[in-house]
Write a structure and sequence with these properties.
Layout: E1 9-11, H1 17-37, H2 41-61, E2 64-66, E3 76-83, H3 99-104, H4 112-120, E4 121-128, E5 132-135, H5 150-160, E6 166-172, E7 191-194, E8 209-214, E9 222-227
Helix pairs in contact: 1-2
Length: about 230
């Protein structure tokens, strides 16, 4: 019988289905015979109303219910990860605020979106620059880190959450990484980058590789090479 119902609906008293159908027919059929013997439009309307009433009572006796599944509040983890590198201090063209200042309001623990997510998820807050660290809140961040090891930060958090239920990661970053993103392994949970539309107009320079060599000649004792 449940297969005939829409998804998510079921009859809690399905064992009473046959007796209820039989009783409903015992009420409706004699009434139908009596009304049809003195057929008129009023008797037809009365029969229709009685049939609807009997079916409604029968349906209530079967106790139809709708069930839906949702995770237990706090059962799944959700990581909030913020880039604390100095590149977040860059100001988009025509804006007096830096990248970090533009998202500072959203990073407050009292922000409505964090309060709402905290009702369903166990929020874990992290910041990264040269390394990743766990935080109670983001109030101590000032975007002063001297690196942006994005790949390493994501890998570290993935390892910490191994074999645990994770809803995903919200990543607040400009996307500039000082380590190789190509070495990033496939993630076992979704990563949602939070992108500021104003950052599309920023022209930035990234050093992806660098090396230093030392020579014994006095005119050129050292040489630096970098890939921009």
């Amino acid at each position: 019988m449940d297969r005939l119902l829409p998804d998510g609906y079921r009859l809690d008293s399905q064992q009473w289905l046959l007796p209820v159908v039989v009783l409903a027919l015992l009420v409706i059929l004699p009434a139908a015979v009596g009304y049809l013997r003195r057929f008129s439009w009023w008797s037809l309307v009365a029969l229709l109303l009685k049939t609807v009433a009997v079916c409604a009572v029968a349906f209530c006796v079967l106790q139809p219910t709708r069930r839906s599944e949702r995770p237990t509040p706090g059962a799944n983890l959700l990581a909030l990860v913020v880039d604390n590198s100095q590149s977040m201090q860059i100001q988009p063209s025509g804006d007096a605020r830096s990248r970090f200042e533009r998202i500072a309001g959203a990073l407050e623990t009292s922000a409505p979106w964090q309060v709402r997510l905290g009702q369903d998820f166990d929020l874990r807050r992290y910041a990264f620059d040269r390394s990743v660290r766990s935080l109670e809140d983001f109030s101590s961040l000032a975007a002063e880190g001297t690196g942006s090891n994005l790949s390493s930060a994501i890998t570290t958090i993935q390892n910490r959450f191994a074999s645990r239920p994770v809803g995903g990661m919200l990543l607040f970053s400009d996307g500039i990484s000082t380590d190789a993103l190509s070495k990033l392994p496939p993630s076992e949970f979704p990563i949602y980058p939070v992108v500021d539309d104003a950052l599309q107009a920023v022209q930035d320079v990234v050093l992806t590789a660098g090396s230093a060599t030392v020579s014994s000649f006095e005119l050129a004792p050292a040489a630096l090479e970098a890939t921009i």
